[in-house]
Write a structure and sequence with these properties.
The complex is a heterodimer of chains A (401) and B (258). Chain A is mostly helical and 401 residues long. Chain A contains 16 helices and 4 strands. In chain A, the strands form 2 sheets. A two-stranded antiparallel sheet of chain A has the order 1-4. In chain A, a hairpin with a 2-residue loop joins strand 2 and strand 3. Chain A is globular, with a radius of gyration of 21 Å. Chain B folds into 2 domains: 164 residues, Rossmann fold (3-Layer(aba) Sandwich); 86 residues, P-loop containing nucleotide triphosphate hydrolases (Rossmann fold, 3-Layer(aba) Sandwich), CATH 3.40.50.300. Helices cover 40% and strands 24% of the residues of chain B. The radius of gyration of chain B is 19 Å and the shape is globular. The chains are: A mainly alpha (401), B alpha/beta (258). Bound molecules: adenosine-5'-triphosphate and magnesium ion (MG). Adenosine-5'-triphosphate binds next to strand 2 and helix 1 of chain B.
């Protein structure tokens, strides 16, 4: 641990490969493997009693993990050996996808988690960095989804990757409508504006026949290089549910979003966004252009949400206004709060907990909102910086020279 | 006489009925060290806020090198080369000391998307440069503080925070420096060390003009070339401290005599 103390300075120093590096790497691999096993069990099991059993074991496991300080080690690893950690996680999820290849529902859930991770990373940039509250995350997700539906239908000749990109851009651009009011208001008022936007958008979609009204729209599947994602997974690759392709795509998107979020944090962009959040008067007095950074953060976050929404739409094959509820926006905000505001690594376990638990427990499902309300209040009261509080900015990992 | 860098003409700031600054005429020359004094609530901080674009004046004008900058936004004012400290410390406390200092050096940072996100080698070189500048500057003021470069500001003592604030204002090598009670809470020794360092900096940057708000008269006497006394938002005296201090109106303002 002593070697880790020096973390901040080392970019000017030289690097020594230490035992503790090797140990951390082993720990990460072990941790990822453990996560894969637990998640596999969790996603795979169907009966409530089986899950109940798992839930009895889980606290014991968590106790063990806590004793081993796994959460903070994991955060530490994400900072000191980021590439290794990211790649291990990507491989871990890929293994999980392969293990679950015939389980439609489990894959659907896994994909949802990954898409929600992407949206939460957008919220991390908006709220965690620049301090912009956004209670309309699901609306921007929805804009991405509807763009995908409409663009895919009308411009079938365009490559689907481009259409996904356009959907993200549409979401970012429509979000620009909110920028003026958000720049002019603060705190609760800004929150109210985003809430109103979400409700208005839903109403707009419901009354507009071009967008299918309350019945919604059908969405074409993603097709890349002649591979139609709605077919089952190519048998050359081992075969499996068509959800596999979407899960892999969502994984890639989440990984890219994560990488971008971290790079933004570790650059002058993140520095200025933090400064804007913490003290606008001081920021302005040192030449920081406050609107510029708020707009950047807001549009980037909505762009992430739009991209995720586009993939979601293609995967579902069908979208309706009712799929984008205000309660889902709350869910996304609570992911960020539970994880640790502004900590990109933290949204991953938080998204898992918040998306998967209620899906597996009908009991929770019914009282979902109530339960999250309580969770959020408890976090704000007892642990305002979340399960994994964000650390100091680290511009470069310790291990690079 | 050296050229005037900053000038205000009949500058007035009001809050509702209260005139916190009333028709203030003021001049600051290149290289000058001006002490701004006055009883509590006399409008000293308000003057800084009006200069830096935080408050917009009700009437009157501000000129920088003869150019009218009245009502310029705070970022504009920073771009002109005016920096400040705040009476009540306004650092980004969860961020590291280094981060806070780099924020002060906005003018010299490269905000290109390519360099910041993709060309990390170049970014690393710039970060290294900024770190060296910050470290060198901090160690002028306190060697111990320079060792805390990578610590969060929230872990620093109030005194160290004040030093960081002064450094944040200096790091971009401003033309005009506005200090609002930078030594509040410091012991006489600490204050002397801070002022010595400031004088040292001024020797290396002879064009820098400074306004210092300070309640400690001894200090004003020692460091200022001239001083301006405010009372109820009006200038009641101006000149060398030794001359000003003997004025009856000044004594009255401070002692509450008529
Ligand atoms: N934002 C504001 N709104 C209303 N009144 C204000 C505001 N800022 C300052 N004032 C008032 O203006 C007057 C001058 O205040 P200012 O802070 O400039 O005094 P000061 O000379 O800096 O005093 P001190 O030595 O206590 O710092 C005071 O009466 C104060 O109450
Ligand atoms: Mg004051």
């Amino acid at each position: 641990m002593a070697a880790n103390r020096l973390v901040g300075r080392s970019f000017c120093g030289t690097r020594l490969i230490t035992m503790s590096d090797l140990k951390t790497k082993l720990e990460i691999l072990l941790g990822v493997a453990l996560c894969v096993v637990v998640l596999y069990g969790f996603l795979y099991l169907e009966h409530e009693w089986e899950i109940g059993l798992l839930l009895v074991i889980l606290p014991l496991a968590i106790l063990f993990l806590k004793r081993a300080n796994i959460l903070s080690d994991y955060q530490q690893a994400a900072r000191t050996i980021p590439r290794f950690t990211l790649i291990s996680f990507i491989v871990g999820v890929l293994v999980l996808i392969v293990l679950l290849r015939d389980e439609h529902f489990a894959l659907l859930m896994l994909t949802t988690v990954l898409l929600y991770v992407t949206v939460s990373l957008g919220l991390t940039i908006q709220f965690g960095f620049a301090g912009l509250v956004n209670f309309a995350a699901i609306a921007f997700f929805g804009i991405g989804a509807y763009s995908m539906a409409v663009l895919n239908y009308h411009f079938h000749a365009l490559p689907d990757l481009l259409i996904i990109l356009f959907s993200g851009l549409t979401s970012a651009l429509l979000g620009a409508l909110l920028i003026l009011p958000i720049l002019r208001t603060k705190g609760h008022y800004a929150a109210l504006i985003t809430i109103a936007f979400g409700i208005l958008l839903r109403t707009f979609l419901e009354v507009n026949d071009v967008f299918g009204g309350p019945q919604g729209l059908k969405v074409g599947a993603i097709e890349i290089l002649g591979w139609n994602f709605s077919d089952s997974f190519p048998s050359v690759l081992g075969g499996g549910s068509f959800y596999m392709a979407y899960a892999i795509m969502a994984l890639l998107l989440a990984a890219i979003a994560y990488l971008l979020t971290r790079l933004i944090e570790a650059s002058w962009f993140g520095l200025n966004m933090d400064s804007v959040r913490l003290d606008e008067v001081a920021s302005a007095s040192f030449g920081i252009n406050i609107p510029r950074w708020k707009i950047t953060a807001f549009m980037l976050g909505n762009f992430f949400a739009g991209l995720a929404g586009a993939i979601y739409a293609a995967m579902s094959g069908f979208i309706a206004p009712a799929s984008f509820n205000f309660s889902d926006s709350l869910l996304l905000v609570s992911i960020v709060l539970l994880g640790g505001i502004g900590n990109a690594v933290a949204v991953i376990p938080a998204a898992l907990l918040i998306v998967v638990l209620p899906e597996k427990f009908q009991v929770i499902q019914e009282y979902r909102l109530l339960l999250f309300g309580i969770v959020v209040i408890l976090i704000l009261r007892f642990r305002p910086s979340g399960l994994m509080p964000r650390g100091l900015r680290q511009y470069f990992p310790r291990s690079s020279t | 006489m050296r050229p005037v860098v900053l000038k205000t003409v009949e500058l007035t700031v009001s809050f509702g009925g209260l005139k916190a600054l009333n028709c203030l005429d003021f001049e600051l020359c290149e290289g000058q060290f001006l002490g701004l004094i006055g009883p509590n609530g006399s409008g000293k901080t308000t003057f800084f806020n009006a200069l830096t674009g935080i408050y917009s004046p009700a009437s009157g004008n501000v000129f920088l090198y003869g150019e009218k900058i009245t009502g310029a936004s705070p970022n504009k004012v920073y771009d002109y080369g005016i920096t400040r400290t705040f009476q009540r410390s306004r650092l980004a406390t969860p961020l590291s000391v280094l981060d806070n200092l780099i924020i002060g050096n906005q003018r010299n940072l490269n905000f290109g998307l390519w360099q910041n996100i993709f060309d990390r080698k170049r970014f690393k070189a710039e970060l290294k440069k900024q770190t060296e500048i910050a470290e060198a500057l901090l160690s002028r003021f306190s060697r111990d503080l320079a060792a805390l470069l990578f610590k969060p500001v929230s872990s620093l003592s109030m005194i160290d925070r004040r030093r960081v604030e002064v450094c944040r204002a200096l790091i971009s090598e401003p033309k005009i420096l506005l200090l609002d009670e930078p030594s509040a809470g410091m012991t006489p020794d600490e204050t002397r060390a801070l002022m010595d360092e400031l004088q040292d900096w001024r020797k290396q940057h002879p064009l820098l003009a400074t306004i210092l708000i300070e309640h400690e008269m001894e200090l004003i006497n020692k460091v200022s070339d001239t001083c301006v006394v405010l009372n109820y938002g009006e200038k009641i005296a101006e000149g060398r401290y030794s001359d000003v201090a003997t004025k009856t109106s000044v004594r009255a303002a401070y002692l509450g005599e008529d």
